[in-house]
Amino acid sequence: MRILVFGVGGVGAYFGGRLAEAGEDVVFVARGEHLAAMRRSGLRVDSPAGDFCLNPVSVTDNADEAGMADVVLLGVKTWQVREAAESLKPLLGPHSLVVPLQNGIDTPRVLAEVLGEDRVLGGSCGIFAYIEGPGHVIHGGVDPYIQFGALHPVSNENIERLRQAFDRAKGVAVEVSDDMLASMWQKFLAVAPIGAVGAITRVPMGVMLADPRTNQLIEDAKREIWEVGRALGVNWVEDALGRVTAQHALAPPETTASMQRDIMQGRPSELESQVGAIVKLGEQLGVDTPVNSFIFDCLMPQERLARE
């Protein structure tokens, strides 16, 4: 099974790296100093689940050089998804699958518009990981898991082959979800409020949760997301909000969301596809989202500046 990891940030590096460590045929698509370091000295990942280094590692900056892929793990940012999908077209056969690992909820739709519904799964993962330096990724916390599954009726043996590949990998829990839409929204419920409030407060998760005022902001933002999802027809698990609260309490106190880190460092972020998506859906569905709307309005000027 040939697996292409398109986008080698913390998420792509960890999950793709674990598959390669387990002996799977993995090709990474990276760029810049990260690419140069991986070519020179491989990919190093430091993790509580066990450090590893892939050297040599199969890596390129040209997707055309990667060859045909059975599965693509898509680790780019949400605003890069459509362009990435166009690059992937010539690398996909009739039974190839793309698994998006972004935090947003709209990526499968964008991919399906370019690649077709039959090639696109829903995907979700959990990990606190980031690039420490070129060719070096830190897994800082959260027990890594990955979920994927069909959003539309599809019969493809590569779904089970990918599950088995992750099952053989170290340091990863894997699940094929029967309701991937609900799984993606549950992950979104956990991540988006932390990124939103974290970007405003610019402090790690433990500090936010310890302050009653910012803790309440997170709870209010979560409630709005839950209401929007319910209006959209999401089949929420029982006590979805309480489960996220418990999950947040167990996270390392130094945890920060990737959107928060991007905004704090002046880079383009996933603000529009996370907070903005909730605001937009709320307007369409008639659901009030005052907390998410306020945060979005406050952060959008900086987002425009970063994109310029």
Care to give the gist of this entry?
This protein is α/β, with parallel strands linked by helices and 308 residues long. The protein has helices at 10-21, 32-41, 63-66, 81-88, 107-115, 157-168, 180-201, 205-210, 212-232, 240-250, 258-264, 271-285, 290-307; strands spanning 2-6, 25-29, 43-46, 52-54, 59-60, 69-74, 92-100, 121-133, 136-150, 173-176.
Word description of this protein:
Helix 4 (81-88) packs parallel to helix 5 (107-115), helix 7 crosses helix 13 (290-307) and helix 12 packs across helix 13. The N and C termini lie far apart (41 Å). The protein has 2 domains: 2-178, Rossmann fold (3-Layer(aba) Sandwich); 182-307, N-(1-d-carboxylethyl)-l-norvaline Dehydrogenase, domain 2, CATH 1.10.1040. The model has no long low-confidence stretch (mean pLDDT 93). Helix content is 50%, strand content 21%. The chain has helices at 10-21, 32-41, 63-66, 81-88, 107-115, 157-168, 180-201, 205-210, 212-232, 240-250, 258-264, 271-285, 290-307; strands at 2-6, 25-29, 43-46, 52-54, 59-60, 69-74, 92-100, 121-133, 136-150, 173-176. The protein is of the alpha/beta class.
Number of domains: 2
Q: Find the count of extended strands (DSSP E, 2+ residues).
A: 10
Distance between the termini: 41 Å
Structural class: alpha/beta
Strand content: 15-25%
Key features of this structure:
308 residues; alpha/beta; Rossmann fold; N-(1-d-carboxylethyl)-l-norvaline Dehydrogenase, domain 2; 2 domains; five-stranded parallel sheet; globular
